[in-house]
Amino acid sequence: MLIKSPEAFRTISEVSKDLAIPQHVLRFWETKFMQIKPIKRGGGRRYYRPEDVQLLKGIKNLLYNDGYTIRGVQKVIKENGTRKILNSNNKVGTKSFTDNENTTNEDLISSNSQHYSISDTKRKKLMSVLNNLVSLQNNIKQNK
Prior knowledge:
Elements: E1 10-11, H1 12-19, H2 23-32, E2 39-40, E3 46-48, H3 50-65, H4 70-80, H5 82-88, H6 105-112, H7 120-143
Antiparallel strand pairs: 1-3, 2-3
Helix pairs in contact: 3-5, 4-5
């Protein structure tokens, strides 16, 4: 199998395999993030530029690892442009958003507060509900 140059364009199947994301998700992201603009050739085949692939990696990181919503990522792009996503892509960690079991809920409030624009009062109420749910979950586990 031939190894492509880093500057080479990639097909949707290559990008899908590289990012471990289904092709339909990549197509969906194209509709949500206007900055992703693959070149379309005959028959509608998509060819992603290296910049598109880097942007997709950054979007994937924000969505899957940092816990952003699509709207949250759109807001980051609107406020900071794609450079922030492209730059943060070089600092991608391997820890998943759901791997935060060892952190307390208060740690999550302080570390994620820059991602969301809700008031502290609402955030505290939500954290109270979350703590109640975690407590209920622990009770259920103990009674099994």
